[in-house]
Design brief:
Blueprint (H helix, E strand, L loop, with lengths): L1 H13 L7 H4 L14 H14 L4 H8 L3 H10 L12
Helix pairs in contact: 3-4, 4-5
């Protein structure tokens, strides 16, 4: 709670407007999602490429991003992506 208060206080001190926005908060951004446009389409394209490179293996793709598999599933749902179907060898 103290850390949140410090972040908000710092943002209020450095805020250029009367409204604090995400730029004022200086929140960390995952490198894989640090797209300059902040565009959902660009993020979706990155995820699709990453999943294709890992043959649809969400666990490997999440590991490559340095995030939990559940976090990757959440981001995929948020971007309207369908969960890839993996074919298992019988």
């Amino acid at each position: 709670m103290r850390e949140l208060r410090n972040v908000v206080e710092r943002a209020a001190q450095h805020c250029r407007n009367a409204i604090i926005d995400e730029c004022d908060l200086e929140l960390p951004v995952l490198p894989a999602f640090a797209d300059k446009t902040g565009n959902a389409i660009a993020q979706r394209t990155k995820l699709e490429g990453l999943l294709a490179a890992h043959k649809g293996d969400v666990a490997l793709a999440a590991s490559a991003l340095g995030i939990a598999r559940s976090t990757l599933y959440y981001r995929m749902r948020k971007l309207g992506m369908v969960t890839p179907k993996r074919h298992h060898a019988d």
